[in-house]
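Entry:
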Amino acid sequence: MNLWEREDSSVCRGGKMSRADEVVKKLKESFHDAVVKVEKFRGEVSVTVDKDKIREIMFFLRDSSDLLYNMMTDLCGVDYFGDAARFEIVYLLYSLKFNDRLRIKARIREEEDIDTVSDIWKAADWMEREVYDMFGVKFNNHPDLRRILMMDEFVGYPLRKDFPTEGYGFAEPLSVQLEEELDA
């Protein structure tokens, strides 16, 4: 049985709900069908949600006066090569008012895109670009989705599990041109 499905799991000592339990309860009440899975490990909560509801959920978490997750501290990608939903996008949120952290996850297939949250949290702009650059995950309506770490000519996405260890063309000799040769 899942910890979150037990009736007594939301009550801590003193009969009061923990902050994590309150957040999960509010998410389930507002987005019942969109909450796919809830995990709690060492005091940290991870909520996996439907990718199609990611913007609505993020606005809700940021704007609800009793939640106020007003800071995105990180956004990253994970490659579960071999799974149908190959990529997982992980959002780490922080509430300054309540000194509380929350991890939101969304799984997507290789051919799918996910909506941007860069207009909700400005910090997500470059983080989404990094996930795009390293994994090839496209963020719908991103204002400037292009490579940020690799050069534009780079072929492939280096953090994918199926990317060759040495990279493509590793055995080919490196061509170097000096500035003097370019001017001639």
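Confidence is low (pLDDT under 50) at residues 1-11.
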